[in-house]
Amino acid sequence: MKFQTKLIHAVVLGALGVATSAHAVNLGDDGRGEVLLYPYYTTQAGNDTLISLVNTTAQGKVVKIRVLESLNSREVIDFNLYLSANDAWSAVITADAATGGAKLKTFDKSCTAPQLTATADGAREVSFRNFAYVAPTADNGPAGLARTKEGYIEVIEMGTVNNNFVLTPGTVTFGKAITHVAGVPGDCAAVSTAWAAGGAFNVATGTTDNTGGLIGSASIINVGAGTDYSFDPVAIEAFNRTAGNTGTHTAPGSLLPSLASVDTDGAGAAASAIFYPAAVGSVVTVADWNAVANPVTPADAVSAVLMRQSVLNEFTVNPAIGGGTDMVVTFPTKKFYVQPATTFTAALVNRPFRTNFLATGGTATGACEPVGLSIVGREEEVPVAQIDFSPMPASGANTLCWEANVVTLTNSNVLGSANVLNVNSPYLDGWMSMSFTTTAVIAGAPAGHTGHQMVANGASGPLPVANDVYNGLPVIGFGVQKYVNGNVGGVLSNYGGAFIHKYVRLVN
Predict the structure, then answer these.
(1) Least packed by Cβ within 10 Å: which of 106, 184, 408, 479?
(2) Is 279 domain-assigned?
(3) Residues 150 and 47 in one domain
């Protein structure tokens, strides 16, 4: 069945002629991609987050590593990483005692620009920063470094290394500088020096087009509690594959590329493709998101492939096994729609999110999105009363307000998040649905815009017609379950598991 899915996908995309306009962004269902989105990291409550990235190709890769905090997707650190052929890189995000925030630390030797700071134990590290959410770019939310303790991670390919390109100043070739010999790259300093000398990389010759092939993994580890929650990032393919488009290898510290750096055609349209289980059978749905006719952002194409009407996952809070459950719900493209300066205009009718980020005096209320909650017990029980977050919001509506949210069941707070929302479950075990199906009118929005939807303004071929409506919100995440057996014969017997979310799509 997987083979048939892939075959149909390839045949339909070819028939649509997508490659002649813009490549159609799609999910990397096989786990490989040009973009990897890690839904969550945390250093709260004694947790560390280990991340791993692998270049599975026989060509060197240039990638942007970008770490964003959870409240409003403000960048807390980014740098360029240079992976040689078949290279693997790993790092840990851990608490930074010196700053009260978090930091990234690695014993890996792969080249970065800028180079990370060497430590006495032979590692390299960099402390997270709050520059992106204090003056002059303040969002009026919390300004302290404690805000960097949880968030999510973007990894974006910026090009394939031209091995024979000579780094200037000097005579070292790009390939030799980043390729490992006896476990150590040839000359990482040459890479950083080339940038320090005024951006001496000529990206047209220093890198060639993206080819994808990145995979990764992550683990939230708590040594004291004896738990490990491991999960994979979400992979995105055909993100930026236009032949000759070599200009994405940006300088260290650049905010580009971002999730809006997708291929566009001459008319400014970015394309998306999803494999959608429609009423008549599964089909490939391809749509254009024209940033000229409807100037929102080319990130609409990424939002489209992540649009889901509902998030589904299982839970346990059974005290007989010391059970507890948290669910991570992350909106990786939300930042393109809800920044403080954003206002509703007729041109923003496609905005899937309903509200802007709100904060005053260092207290953030967030950009809150209504969410419907439904819990079903293990034996098919359905509660009579409506399920609500606790304490009950003043508006009477359940909302998710952050870029990376943690929803906990019955106050179990497995991940120790500072931004946790609690749902009191009437059952010890079962499954929960979180749905984005509101039809309420949004104050200040164009007439008829209800949010939680995007309307395609073009089609990339005979399938489908324009004006398809993508319902829900662009969302990724996973659930974690913790089981506590206490001390068994002198051995700490705590266990943990991570479970990727399941989803419901709705495209009209």
Answers:
(1) 184
(2) no
(3) yes
